[in-house]
Design a protein that fits this description.
Rossmann fold; alpha/beta; globular
């Protein structure tokens, strides 16, 4: 696994793209550090329906009005990938990370989708960089 501060490829045709984690999407919409990295990656990104639900929840919990948050998320035009039986089985080996590393269901959904599609997982969650998985993880904020 390669982990680094994300730098979306200049030639997107040679890049399989990105799977956005909820933390990356929230950073974009909340104007947090790393938002510019997520914005640059958007044209070549997809999102799991699980991460869409988690992002919606986080943004509403932060005070966003539900209809406005929905409008903003829909306005991004991201391809939303369903949580399928294949992804459930692909996420099987990630289950122990829930209790050893604190990965949420949505975190594992993002990583499973990245694995299934050959895309990099784009996240603000630094712990992902140390998981030792055969999934490319790109951090939206530089390492400290």
């Amino acid at each position: 696994m390669r982990s680094a501060a994300a730098k979306p490829a200049a030639n997107m045709a040679d890049d399989p793209g990105y799977v956005l984690d909820s933390s990356a999407l929230v950073a974009l919409l909340a104007g947090e550090p790393g938002a510019e990295v997520v914005e640059a990656a958007l044209p070549n990104s997809i999102l799991s329906a699980v991460n869409l639900a988690e992002s919606l929840t986080k943004l509403i919990r932060r005070g966003g009005e539900a209809a406005e948050v929905e409008r903003l998320l829909r306005g991004l035009g991201l391809a939303i990938e369903p949580w399928t039986e294949e992804l459930v089985w692909r996420s099987r080996d990630l289950c122990p990370l829930a209790w050893t590393k604190g990965l949420s269901f949505a975190d594992r959904a993002c990583l499973a989708l990245a694995s299934a599609t050959g895309r990099a997982a784009l996240t603000a969650d630094r712990v992902w960089a140390s998981l030792g998985l055969p999934i490319r993880v790109l951090l939206i904020r530089g390492r400290r």
